[in-house]
Write a structure and sequence with these properties.
The chain has 333 residues and is an alpha/beta fold. The chain contains 14 helices and 10 strands. The longest helix is centred in the C-terminal third of the chain and has 15 residues, at 292-306.
Amino acid sequence: MATSTIPHPAAFGSGLGALAAQAIAQDDQGRGIPTRRLGRTDEQVSILCLGGAHLGRAAMDDGEPAALKLAHAALDNGVFFWDNAWAYHEGYAEEFMGKALKGHREKVFLMTKNSGRDEKFARQCLDDSLKRMQTDYIDLWQFHEINYDNDPDWVFDRGGLKVALEAQQAGKVRYIGFTGHKHPRIHLSMLAKGYEWASSQMPINPMDYFYRSFQREVVPACLAKDVGAIGMKCLGGGPRVAEIPSTTEVTAEMCVRWALSVPVASIVRGYLTTEQLMADVELARGFRPLSDKDREEIQALAQPEAGDGRHEHFKSTQRYDSSIYREMHGFSV
């Protein structure tokens, strides 16, 4: 594919276009793959982030030695931004990552996510995560799955943010952010709450451009507030329901190139094998954003099936909402 330096700046307007250019500016730093600035933190993070859920699954499926090789291959190839969550695999994902971090902690920008909204649960998540990953601090601690309209109020009113701020003051957490995959308006509600978030994690893929679009609604708000945007679900998020037909010709490589061409600091990618990791590493080395022509070609392939949510069930159904949050909000599990 042909490439250009800045992705569709007109989509952000003149002022935000300059911020988008700043957000997507890359620095190799001799690490092997490019890095980008994570919003107001001024931290440089690798444009690929190692997904902890898949890494934990690789350890369970293929054994810990093979998964350790995968994790360390990521680090050796410049993927030093690592992701996890308190809820992944009932804690095993964090426990395994603790093993992978041994002897490497200072080389990794470590992110994990907490499931708490109230003070008690948030504190439990923090204590568990630190213990499981055998570390004294977490670089980026994010409130996970802010998917329900009242989640923003709960985080503030029930004590979750209070715990995060206390942990930050105590040196256990460096930066605080949030994630979600349901609807852009919920992210916008969190961003409007008055706290200066370090990061906001959201779905970024070609289908998202046309359906409840985080990249069109939330990314500009993050740019304006200097919040580091982090992409996830870059392939559309999980298997498609068999009874819903699909003939899209959008490929995985197109999806990754698309996501990295949006003004995000990094994209979280899940790998089960070293081969999957290295395919992304090769793509990321010397990466340049899509040209307008290439972007338009991918849009044309995505648009026919994008508008009804058939490829993004994490937005249109509760299928991808963790049982923790469904139960928290009174839904059946």
